[in-house]
Specification:
mainly beta; two-stranded antiparallel ribbon; 4% helix; globular
Length: 228
């Protein structure tokens, strides 16, 4: 989402900071995404969860245009969102769901960072460990409102931009966002039996799949960017 209420949708999941494209708005952008975990089988324990996003491109602002770079070293925070939001063209910098539900804090309501990455290279994956968040959602201890991505140094003098693949950019769905969840069976002796789950966005259907012992469980997923 952009840091203004004149625009809502940004096709890739974008994290931007530190420049102004005009004299009216700063252009900090924050990415939002959410996986529907309801199709995961019940009765297990979340042992490990990892969110991975594919880096489409990274850029710096030269005063008039975005210049592609071979890599950036930005601290990109992943934070659990604490207010439900709708997405699409209904989520803005001041609105979680326009026009009736504003954010408590403009730019989104979120918890402290779950994890960070510090290097972004086009053609590679960035990954965040999200075990604590996913475990709380799976166990029903906290509502699942997804995550927000933001640059830890918003407002820098040099503009920086990171673009991640999302379901709008589907030239290869194997590069869509992935949530890998490792579940284990709990017994009286606490002997674990792990299984791996993988969730990824699938095209415009805003759906994802999760694999479990050769069975497929449908997951829904939504994503967008907001900016000042």
């Amino acid at each position: 989402m952009r840091n203004n209420d004149d625009a809502s949708i940004e096709q890739p999941t974008v994290v931007t900071s530190g420049h102004r494209i005009d004299t009216k708005y700063p252009t900090d952008e924050r990415g939002l995404l959410k996986f529907d975990l309801s199709s995961l089988p019940e009765g297990y324990r979340v042992k490990e969860a990892v969110l991975s996003l594919y880096v489409i491109g990274v850029y710096t602002w030269d005063g008039s245009a975005w210049i592609p770079e071979t890599e950036l070293f930005r601290t990109i925070e992943l934070r659990a969102i604490t207010t439900d939001w709708l997405g699409w063209s209904f989520t803005y910098w001041t609105y979680a769901t326009f026009p009736h539900k504003p954010w408590k804090n403009p730019g989104g309501d979120f918890a402290p960072p779950t994890d960070v990455v510090r290097r972004e290279t086009p053609g590679t994956w960035n990954s965040w460990k999200v075990t604590t968040d996913v475990r709380a959602w799976y166990d029903g201890k906290k509502p699942n409102y997804g995550w927000l991505l933001k640059d830890a140094s918003e407002g820098d003098k040099v503009g920086c931009r990171v673009e991640y693949m999302n379901w709008f950019y589907v030239y290869d769905i194997s590069l869509s966002p992935k949530l890998e969840v490792r579940l284990e069976q709990e017994t009286a002796t606490q002997v674990s039996y792990p299984e791996w789950f993988a969730a990824s966005m699938v095209a415009v259907s805003v759906a994802a799949i999760v694999a479990f012992r050769r069975k497929l469980f449908p997951l829904k997923l939504s994503s967008k960017s907001i900016s000042r």
